[in-house]
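Re: nicotinamide-adenine-dinucleotide structure - here you go.
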Amino acid sequence: MAQIIDGKALAAKLKVDMQMDVTTLAQKHGRSPGLAVILVGDDPASHVYVKNKEIACEEVGIASISHKLPASTTQEHLLGLIAELNNDPKVDGILVQLPLPEHIHADKVLNTIHADKDVDGFHPFNVGCLAVRQPALRSCTPYGCIKLIETTGISFHGKEAVVVGASNIVGRPMALELLLAGATVTVCHRFTENLQSHIERADIVVAAAGKQGLIQGEWIKKGAIVIDVGIHRLEDGSLTGDVDFEAASKHAGWITPVPGGVGPMTITMLLSNTISAFKNHVGLV
Ligand code: NAD
């Protein structure tokens, strides 16, 4: 049976270290790192995500300022708020919760955030930095996945890594992270034929297609590392991922559960990026 990669435990450990770091930084620099979170509209899941981010910030001592705007907010108003936050010296990080209402152009909004405050790591500048092996602020979910894989102690070198999903926020930066780490990377997406054949030769699988149970357990190579990014809420309220966990556990060497795997690490890397942005702003890096 596969060993569980416990994202909740790793996140808790990293948060203890960050809390100590923030206390020292705040004493030395006269202020705590600041994160501005912008939420537009009434999507219940987004409200839960923002609440969880506020709680996580409080746990480590980051000052979080939430801007909750109605669904009718214009793009112009939103861009104006981002311009203000870009110029606010107490704000080290700016996060716009996705999805945005349809009348707002998400790429335009995300590209307006100053790259040095882009703590989600979505700005083309930061994704480009990763592509040319000069990582700056790194996309939270992929960076969290790398930290989870590192806990296995297995080297990325010489490993076949298969990423399922090619979105801007997970699949693409995930592929760049794995390449940076030294793996041989394949990216599968909605037009890929014979997904099974790719999964069967993977030493590392990162599943981020957003399709419940897409990755069948029998496809997993013996001893592989399986990272499940997918999140799906079932009718009984429980959560599951893109991988058939029960069957995959019989083949994999290591596997992340859903919940308790990637999710807690995504928020933790957001905190880590906010602290990095603060250090940059006060001239420490
Ligand atoms: P998305 O819909 O933007 O992208 C999905 C990608 O999967 C696309 O590139 C698409 O081509 C590919 N895909 C779709 N069907 C496929 C198939 N049958 N075979 C191969 N590829 C296929 O989704 P996203 O925003 O990247 O999120 C993916 C999943 O990860 C969702 O379930 C989302 O909820 C979850 N997610 C989790 C976290 C976390 O912290 N755990 C963070 C972000 C996203």
